[in-house]
């Protein structure tokens, strides 16, 4: 597992000069002037030593992926030959140790076809700076002669939009100037069809505050107002492109990661390498004072472990601990995170201040929270009547169909935001970049087919495995199989590369084509009437819609259960193997029929005994994963919070399966609720004694068990006989004991306290069990 003090992102300065004279540039016109002492371009020996240091660090810390951002000055001034050699060195030195996410940030004016070819070949994503239309862009971004750079930048973006170079198009970086019209800026940026947009606040400090209209010098929030104008349009337009600032604030609102060091409390594990090999802190610090980013260390003299131990770099990994008291007490701390560190600087107090943009950030966050985002983003559940009603409904046990449906919708919106955030930030090889482009097209042209991707239960855990700090390397090829399945559902006309795993090409929710070993992958050809999978050295597997029988080499996904609740019986997808217990292998026909009968029987039992749980079961459980039977004959079931709407079950009789289903249903619902609000204090490590375990449990685990056992007690109370009465007494006592234990702690939030009290009220409202 990657260690917490590892460095995972590197900003590599390959050229220290620039071909523009932007008057808002923190490198050349702000307080720090160390650029003038640096070599103009990086020496190959320095670049190689950097690569060695990165590989050494990745190996020592078992990092699966690192990001390297080529920067300047203007990195394109290095030229295609030198850039190709540098990128080759990085690939050859670091590539065998960790996957490389390569990015380049440029003003674009030197971009050529030759350079684009280099970037596509090495899998580099290029971000281009553009501040809007010609008037907006030329306000700051001009040549030294004063001439406009706008036309040259547009030529660069036109190059990146060409199909053969599109995989290298990383997006647009736009520095905010409140003198520019936000609507015109947004329109101009969208016209360049970027894969993402990044709005940047101009670097400023309390000593050198940002420009503000005269009317707001002593108050007002002009930067928030400017960004909110764009945010409202962006929502009305259906979020046509990922916007890193907005997506980060929405993600952090529900406890997710930020995509930028500018907001949020995620640890910052970044260092800068200057053209002479000096290790430095974040480049933005150069706006604070001369030498602010320096460490006194070099690639020749210090390892990355030594750099990571530098007090100022280590402090960036401590979340709120490095922030001033004002920030730590602020209600938007989790989302704001104090803003960019450089923006907190003031002579005398250093960085122990709120951001110079404090009022703007707070207004932006609070306004975004208040903005209705139906159908575009997961809701943020703040304390109030709406959350209270949701908690009370769920605490009743079964909960209403409307609540479950709403949670499911929010889960899909969360999955969409995570998909766009995570995959949009990856450096993808050309075949996967093409798949990502196709999936984005399907999101617009075939929303129902794209919705099937969002409902895949393994999507979210796969996306989390793509994050830099994941415990194991990500299966990036899964993106191609998800896209392929969406294309089939859409009846698209498409051709794409797909990976072969264990001799099969799996299309999630559809089935697997048996190809035999094919290390180079296979080709999926999709047409409106079906699809064909072709791998070298193996017969093609052709599936045609509506044709009777299964073609040779095709293992179809099976569905089981009653007509009122048809679920995917998933015994094919490799990503299903995330349960607490081992999953079963591919079922034979007889075993599949037995599972169909078992799920139908359990549905019948619940129809008779607990019909109020059926709407939630129908809405929240779409996939059942058969588990291997326990050798000792014990019952087995499981869920995973990251695998929404899926449960794992081992074979059991109909009545037992009904209980297991309701037990796991509660875990699914509570997991969805926890995506939207905190029930336990995030930093409270209190553990709770629960009667169903020998060990003490963390608060979230105790809540999960409490809620699941509430439903199990509810089912047993509805059954007759001595065994049912005994089970009801046991589970009812378990629920009350655990609820009391949780309420005695200081670890519950207000929402958590209400939820636990509601569960106890539900139990108290049941008739007393027979003695």
TrEMBL record:
Alphabetical keyword list: Iron, Iron-sulfur, Metal-binding, S-adenosyl-L-methionine
Iron as UniProt keyword: yes
MF GO annotations: iron-sulfur cluster binding; metal ion binding; oxidoreductase activity
Family annotation (CDD domains): Radical_SAM (cd01335)
Span of domain Radical SAM core: 4-233
Pfam families in the cross-refs: Radical_SAM (PF04055)
Coiled coil: none
InterPro entries registered for this protein in UniProt: AKG_HExxH, Aldolase_TIM, rSAM, rSAM_sf, rSAM_SPASM_FxsB, Sulphatase_maturase_rSAM
Name used for this protein in its record: FxsB family radical SAM/SPASM domain protein
